[in-house]
Amino acid sequence: MVADVVRAHDYYAGRLGFRSPRMWGEPPTFCIAERDGLELMLAQVDTGNAVHSNAENQGRIDAYFWVDDADALHSEFSANGADLVGEPEDQPYGMREFLVRDPDGHVLGFGHDTTGGA
Fold this sequence. Notes:
By secondary structure, the chain is an alpha+beta fold. It has helices at about 5-15, 70-80; strands spanning about 25, 30-35, 40-45, 65, 85-90, 95-100, 105-115. The protein contains 2 helices and 7 strands. A hairpin with a 5-residue loop joins β6 and β7 (about 105-115). It is globular. The termini are far apart.
């Protein structure tokens, strides 16, 4: 859920490389942003309603994406001016990951497996 789907999509496209070939509504209130086979639905809340991200709940992540190379993606996002929440780090559960914050406060995780597993 986002406050303004056009603003959110502009961030996802310009900073994170996602594309939405179609937006629904006039003005738009919904789209499906896609990148490298990963999809994320962006739906606009009704006027006057608040957006509540999982980050408000003890910093939890709103969405997590398994990627091929978290370090390369972090560098790309950094060059594009994304709101990065730290550097890529190896985690005890076998992932190398980093976080990004979107304009509505959603925190997205991007990580790759470091165990050699699938």
